[in-house]
């Protein structure tokens, strides 16, 4: 590899993270990636295209990277014959999913979630923190305000506060609540997402991956992924259609298939007896395998779609794996994603396609 190769660890400017990284050079690999994302953006109808474009072109990783995931999922479903609805209104929930897709009588609800480095997820504006704290004190709940794009130099705090106060937020709501606000201010198109985590049994607010990093302990990629999935799992309450969570992991250390399996099926435990062979089991703390009162905790989620961007010797490719939840109350048909590896659990410790 040369120093200008996009896959070279010696050249961090070649990292595909962030729109500026894709536009600072005109080298063929970066131009190809940039053009592909823009072609996918052109497939998105208005007004959703303007919102996604603001996120895609953002200088913030925590806006740009999730936009790429949503663009991929939209393009993948659209190009494989699915009819795609973006942020449709649901009859049983005030939350709006990223996508509702239909094909051949089958319907899937798809929600996207990116797992980012703590540095990226911590790119919060101080004024938004203050607004979130004010709203949280009034509600007696945890409130998180996340920028969905670059923010205007002068944040219209009063307008954001009035919008948030118009939302119906019950104190004892069982599910995670999310509201997206898009607006134009001083010629700047910007977006903000309000997140109100559900309360757990101890009456403490769950906060997903926010604030989990400490000086004493580094959270593993598998745990970050598991917590991100748990955050989305109960967002819509009981569902009458299969529910798929699409996730990408954009952390400093690239997530592996083993990280994904640990997150979904539980942490590995090595059993080393005094005599006999060493065996491997898993703790029952996986996203799929966790139970509460002998009932699967997250049986509303039918499958998890894992998206990866990968550089090749020549060019790049987009890869996905579909992990099917063995405890799901509503399964998805194997031919829903026919050209992608579909993985099922086989017995207590085995899984495969």
Characterization of this structure:
- This protein is an alpha+beta fold and 353 residues long.
- It has two domains: 12-119 and 211-352, no CATH class; 123-196, no CATH class.
- Helix content is 27%, strand content 25%.
- The chain has helices at residues 19-23, 28-42, 48-56, 61-79, 118-121, 126-139, 157-165, 221-233, 257-265, and strands at 83-86, 99-103, 106-116, 144-147, 177-185, 188-196, 243-250, 268-271, 279-282, 291-292, 295-296, 303-311, 316-324, 342-346, 350-352.
- The strands form four sheets. It has an eight-stranded mixed beta sheet with strand order 1-2-3-7-12-13-14-15. Strands 4-6-5 form a three-stranded antiparallel beta sheet, sandwiched between helices. A two-stranded antiparallel sheet has the order 8-9.
- Helix 3 (48-56) crosses helix 4 (61-79), helix 6 (126-139) packs parallel to helix 7 and helix 8 (221-233) crosses helix 9.
- The chain is globular.
- Mean pLDDT is 80; it is low at 1-14, 201-218 and 347-352.
